[in-house]
Amino acid sequence: MLVLNFVMQLVMLVWSYFSVVITDPGGVPPNWIPNLDEESGGAGQWAGSDNDGVDLGANQSAMLIEPKHQGVRFCQKCNQFKPPRCHHCSVCRRCILKMDHHCVWVVNCVGAFNYKYFLLFLFYTFLETTLVTVSLLPIFIALFTDDEIPESPGNLAASFITFVLNLAFALSILGFLIMHISLVAGNTTTIEAFEKKTSPKWRYDLGWKINFEQVFGKNKKYWLIPAYSKDDLEWLPSFQCVEYPTRPDSDDL
Ligand SMILES: [Zn+2]
Ligand SMILES: [Zn+2]
């Protein structure tokens, strides 16, 4: 039973890990322009074929100086508009939708399209390291008591090191997991949290349930696997490249 649990969690861990690594975190679509008709000045739309090849340089400059378009953000490095909650990653050298952070462990940015997979990777790594720690606990306890240990000195040393390493991993990942659970519950990315945008009226905080669904989707069958249902892909704001739904009483940007 223990071995079966170990193998199943390992499969989920590896699946989640490679999903984070190979999934594009979300780039800004070419020729994306903000929909400036919207009152917020931040809602976006896909630029149609009519805009292809049109030099937007002059218009862009004009928009940026006009006070009424203060909400519009522009990336000088990518030379393009930035959709809401998008940030430029200096490692990837491009703008990433709803960027959370650039992760060296997965050699990729964690953003709109792979954030859920990253959280599942953390979750399964925590489960796996905890399972190993708990299964080796009897040997660890026996080391400090008078109990007889039916292991060779070599096995004992390996078990001891494995126990300590797994315990250290499990505890550090638990801290990271708790931090991300609170971020998801408040609909905040790590970058936004550092930018101190977690005021009591954080504009994207729509309650923990909706906030959770915006990352994990509405279909419960998909919550624990690194994938989304077709319906979720169609409604999730992260995949639409538009302004995210905001709370009615929000007043900050
Ligand atoms: Zn950029
Ligand atoms: Zn990056």
From TrEMBL:
Pfam families: DHHC. The keyword Transport does not apply. It is found in: Endomembrane system. Residues 1-16 form the signal peptide. It catalyses: L-cysteinyl-[protein] + hexadecanoyl-CoA = S-hexadecanoyl-L-cysteinyl-[protein] + CoA. Its EC number is 2.3.1.225. GO terms for cellular component: endomembrane system. It is a multi-pass membrane protein. GO terms for molecular function: protein-cysteine S-palmitoyltransferase activity. Residues 72-196 form the Palmitoyltransferase DHHC domain. It comes from the Eukaryota. PROSITE patterns: DHHC. The keyword Transmembrane applies. InterPro entries: Palmitoyltrfase_DHHC (IPR001594), PFA4/ZDH16/20/ERF2-like (IPR039859). The DHHC domain is required for palmitoyltransferase activity. PANTHER family: PALMITOYLTRANSFERASE ZDHHC16. Belongs to the DHHC palmitoyltransferase family. This is S-acyltransferase.
